[in-house]
């Protein structure tokens, strides 16, 4: 039987783009950098499009969810802003009793030359693309379908006089779980600009290892806490691995790592130490920062060779900004959140077909 990994069958970023990315990262000009899509069926697509000089303001509300979930409510805006060669900014939204603002976090690293909205002739995207067309069009563009690329190109020409673009869509109307492969470059440029394109080129990470394999586990406990008395060892965690599964994979990883072992990081918002103790792990770094530092924990978790994540929105966001390595995902990828997301050299394996042999993927580059 041939087992095919999703990350191996998707066409993400072929060698030519990797080369372009490398030459681009040697000469960083973040404010002018344009991002590749997940599909390279864009013949002649250049990574350096004209400088983004106008702002694309997603003015409608995004909803009040956390950093990972809120992303599902403006992916179409990311895609449209890229297709229209403009720079997406999100109208300010404070969530969870003002503990942090996802929009400020995503806006922070926007190109400096687009930090103002010119209202002299600001146009509404809704006058060019109807609500009903929006989903099919952005989806088609992400998949490199000619009709969608051409249609958005025509919209861009018709909008060439617009000094700024307003997007009045609301978070309630827009909910896109998949299409993460299409926005991965944008997300990286906004959340980890200095590391955004760094995982290349590939150098093998093979035994005997010179350092411990770093392993990050996300336990989504805090906001879904089961009542006292819940049998944690059989509890089905929402959006993260169950405990027996974590134990099993950590044992596989230790066997694979050999003498250098693993360096474990556990991220658990609103940590419940009684629950955590049931994992029987004694040495680990715990990420449980106050909410104002949500981004720091997200980034710290992402920077691990191996990640154990659920198919939650937070989990997929962690993966999108991770370096080269291996992400193990609970379940079978049914929601599509991890589809086409190996463009920066990270393998994805779903636990529904995981075997310990999958850990060897750490030794090989992602095939495109
Ligand atoms: C993944 O990429 C393939 C090929 O480009 C495309 O057909 C598919 O729709 C994409 N899926 C998602 C969820 O992005
Ligand atoms: C932790 O150890 C206890 C006692 O040996 C065991 O019952 C429990 O299953 C272990 N936890 C996990 C997650 O395997």
Write the layout of secondary structure elements.
Blueprint: H1 6-9, H2 15-26, E1 55-58, H3 67-71, H4 75-83, E2 87-90, H5 102-107, E3 122-124, H6 131-142, H7 146-158, E4 164-167, H8 180-191, E5 213-218, H9 243-257, E6 262-267, H10 273-277, E7 285-287, H11 294-302, E8 306-309, H12 313-320, E9 325-329, E10 346-350
Helix pairs in contact: 4-6, 6-7, 11-12
The structure holds 2-acetamido-2-deoxy-beta-D-glucopyranose (NAG) (2 copies).
One 2-acetamido-2-deoxy-beta-D-glucopyranose is lined by residues 233, 243-244, 247, 278-280.
Question: Your description of this structure?
Answer:
This protein is an alpha/beta fold and 368 residues long. It folds into two domains: 6-195, no CATH class; 213-363, Rossmann fold (3-Layer(aba) Sandwich), CATH 3.40.50. Helices cover 30% and strands 12% of the residues. The protein contains twelve helices and ten strands. It has helices at 6-9, 15-26, 67-71, 75-83, 102-107, 131-142, 146-158, 180-191, 243-257, 273-277, 294-302, 313-320, and strands at 55-58, 87-90, 122-124, 164-167, 213-218, 262-267, 285-287, 306-309, 325-329, 346-350. The strands form two sheets. The chain has a six-stranded parallel sheet with strand order 7-6-5-8-9-10. A four-stranded parallel sheet has the order 2-1-4-3. Helix 10 links the parallel strand 6 and strand 7 (285-287). Helix 6 (131-142) crosses helix 7 (146-158). The longest helix is centred in the C-terminal third of the chain and has 15 residues, at 243-257. The protein is globular and about 65 Å long. The model is unreliable at 1-50 (pLDDT under 50). It binds 2-acetamido-2-deoxy-beta-D-glucopyranose (NAG) (2 copies). Keywords: Signal. Residues 1-23 form the signal peptide.
């Amino acid at each position: 039987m041939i087992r095919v990994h999703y990350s191996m069958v998707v066409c993400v970023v072929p060698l030519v783009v990797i080369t372009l990315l490398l030459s681009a990262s040697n000469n960083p000009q973040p404010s002018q950098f344009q991002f590749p899509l997940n599909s390279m069926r864009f013949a002649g697509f250049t990574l350096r499009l004209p400088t983004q000089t106008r702002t694309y303001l997603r003015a409608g509300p995004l909803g009040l969810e956390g950093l990972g979930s809120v992303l599902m409510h403006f992916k179409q805006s990311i895609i449209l802003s890229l297709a229209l060669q403009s720079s997406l900014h999100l109208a300010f939204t404070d969530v969870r009793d003002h503990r942090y603002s996802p929009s400020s976090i995503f806006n922070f690293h926007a190109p400096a030359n687009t930090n103002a909205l010119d209202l002299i002739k600001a146009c509404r995207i809704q006058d060019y693309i109807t609500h009903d067309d929006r989903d099919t069009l952005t989806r088609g563009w992400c998949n490199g379908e000619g009709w969608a690329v051409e249609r958005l190109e025509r919209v861009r020409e018709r909008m060439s006089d617009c000094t700024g673009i307003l997007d009045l869509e609301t978070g309630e109307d827009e909910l896109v779980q998949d299409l993460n492969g299409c926005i991965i470059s944008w997300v990286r440029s906004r959340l980890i600009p200095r590391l955004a394109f760094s995982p290349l080129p590939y150098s093998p990470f093979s035994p005997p290892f010179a350092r411990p394999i770093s392993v990050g586990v996300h336990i989504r406990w805090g906001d879904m806490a089961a009542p006292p008395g819940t049998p944690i060892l059989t509890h089905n965690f929402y959006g993260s691995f169950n405990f027996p599964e974590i134990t099993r994979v950590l044992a596989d990883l230790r066997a694979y790592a050999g003498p250098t072992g693993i360096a474990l990081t556990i991220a658990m918002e609103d940590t419940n130490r009684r629950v955590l103790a049931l994992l029987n792990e004694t040495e680990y770094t715990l990420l449980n920062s106050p909410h104002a530092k949500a981004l720091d924990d997200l980034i710290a978790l992402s920077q691990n060779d191996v990640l154990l994540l659920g198919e939650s929105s937070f989990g997929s966001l962690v993966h999108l900004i991770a370096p080269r390595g291996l992400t193990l995902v609970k379940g079978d990828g049914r929601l599509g959140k991890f589809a086409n997301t190996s463009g920066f050299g990270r393998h994805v394996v779903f636990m529904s077909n995981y075997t310990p042999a999958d850990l060897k993927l750490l030794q090989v580059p992602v095939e495109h």
